[in-house]
Amino acid sequence: GLTLDGFRARGGALQALAEAEQEPFACALLVAGTVEAAEKRAGTLAGIAARQARAGQKEQAGRVFSEALATAGAVAPAYRKARALANIAGQYAEAGLQDQADRVLVEALAIAGALDHAYRKVSVLARIAGQYIEAGELDRAERVLSAALEAASLAEPASSRAEALAGIASRYLESGRMDQAGRILRQAHALAQATDPTYSKAVILTDIAGRYVAAGQGDQAGLALNEALEIARTIEIEAIRVRTLANIADGLAAAGQFSQALAVAGAIGDASGKAGALAGIAGRLAATGQFSQALETAHSIGDPTVEAAALAEIAHGYLETGQVDQA
Q1: Which residues contact 24 (CB under 8 A, 6 or more apart)?
Q2: Measured between alpha carbons, how far is 141 from 148 in angstroms, rounded to an integer?
Q3: pLDDT category, 327, cuts 50, 70, 90?
Q4: In sequence order, what are the residues at sequence separation of 6 or more whose Cβ sits closer than 8 angstroms to the Cβ of residue 246?
Q5: Which of 227, 215, 280, 219 is nearest to 250 (CA)?
Q6: Per-residue pLDDT tens for 33-49?
Q7: Under a CB-based contact definition with an 8 Å cutoff, are residues 248 and 280 in contact?
Q8: pTM to 2 decimals?
């Protein structure tokens, strides 16, 4: 049963919650305090602080940012700590506090530079580079990405090296360095091709394909997706096979290869997986203005709930293009 001390403790918690509900940020902080993982708690606190700063509560934001930094300082192992600091830096930047963001990034960069695990090092460096890119500090981002490329060359096995390079390529895309991004993606693609034909290889190839699309290299994306498709069809576990095929169908649609995307989606044996894949393709068709084919695809879904959601997205596409009557 509930003891007297327990009752008093619960009463105090209820009172704190009642008071917090009068002030949304206080309520958010109360909830943040219940997050057990230190890295996530630090990120949650920093997000609250950024919102406080944007709301004009500068002093309160400063205190919460300090709490977020103190929480991040206790995060272990080191790569998680560096990642937590990079995330806090991003929130400082969101709040318009770029000087503070830069100081935190320097600390995160020092930790990342000392990491021994190559793949984790690349992951953290790429995240830091992304923060610099968002701040428009492209020279700093370039230096960090150069360090990431050096670390990526040491990542093992080859599949991890391919993933690391694909992540770096995305940062180059964000910075507008399309040629460099394309060159690195081709390196990642070649590494992925050389790995054993497993589920992981299909996932990596699909991921690389998505980045090819972002780089405007639809043909290369199609090649990577067809390679992934050959592997996906051999996956024995149905749930994994269905998910992989659905992702490939979506990738093909993103690359503008709608006929093949529809063929892949149509061949999915699981009704739910097939419906989801077709809905995704319908949405991408609508996004490119191909409304008649989008509607035809939506009507072929077979699941009323999923079909309704797809039709709503198509209607939204009509509205965005000014075709109110069609919507």
Answers
A1: none
A2: 10
A3: low
A4: 265, 268, 273, 276, 277, 280
A5: 280
A6: 889 999 999 999 999 99
A7: no
A8: 0.80
